[in-house]
Amino acid sequence: xxxxxxxxxxxxxxxxxxxxxxxxxxxxxxxxxxxxxxxxxxxxxxxxxxxxxxxxxxxxxxxxxxxxxxxxxxxxxxxxxxxxxxxxxxxxxxxxxxxxxxxxxxxxxxxxxxxxxxxxxxxxxxxxxxxxxxxxxxxxxxxxxxxxxxxxxxxxxxxxxxxxxxxxxxxxxxxxxxxxxxxxxxxxxxxxxxxxxxxxxxxxxxxxxxxxxxxxxxxxxxxxxxxxxxxxxxxxxxxxxxxxxxxxxxxxxxxxxxxxxx
Length: 262
What we know:
Elements: H1 3-22, H2 30-40, H3 44-58, H4 72-86, H5 90-127, H6 131-158, H7 161-169, H8 173-197, H9 204-216, H10 221-239, H11 257-261
C-alpha cells in the first residue's frame, strides 16, 4: 500500500466518521464506504460484494433517542482493508465487522461525551454573540468524529499484512463461525425492522411479488431491481394520474346555449 492509497483511505475514513453523526449524505454506510475502499485498493468487486453483505447487516442499525447503534463506519473501513489486503473471504470480513462495529460504538460514545463539554462552552459563546467561535467548535467536534475512525484505520494500515493474517488465524474457528452466524441473524433482524418501519399495506403485494420472483425464477438481483423500478413507475402513474373531468347535470333546464357549446 503506497502513500497515495493511505491518504485516500484516511480521507474516506474521516468522511465516514463525520457522516456517521450527520446521517444526511449516508457516507458512512457500508454500501458506500466498502466500494470506495475497494476502488482505492484496486479490488472494486470485493468492495462491492462486502459492502452489500455488510449493508444487509446494518439495515436496522440506527440511533433512536439516547440508544447508540453499532458503528458501521469503522466496521466497513477496517474490514474492507483487512479482507482485500489479506485475501480473506467475505465470511471473515463479516466476522470481523461485528466486533469492530461494537468497538466503534464505544468510541463514538466516548467522543460524544467529550462533545458535551463543547456544547456547554458553546452556550456561553452564543450568549456573548461570538458565533465564529461557535462555528469553529462545531467543526472541531466533527473533526473528533473523523479522528475516531481515522486513527484505528491508520493503525491497521501500518501493521504488516502477515501480522494481520496471523491475528486472524489465531481466532478460534468456533468464534469466527459464531460471529458469521450472528451476522446472518443480524441481517434478518435488521431487514425485519426496516419492513416494520415501512409498513405500507398497499405496497406489500409488490414486496411479496419480489420474493416469488426470486424464489421461482432465474432472475438475478439486477433483473429484480429493474422489474421493481418498472412496477414503481406504473404504480405512481396509476396512483397520481389526473382524474377525468366529469360534468354533473342536475337539471337540463338550467343549461343555456353557452353551456351546451362548451
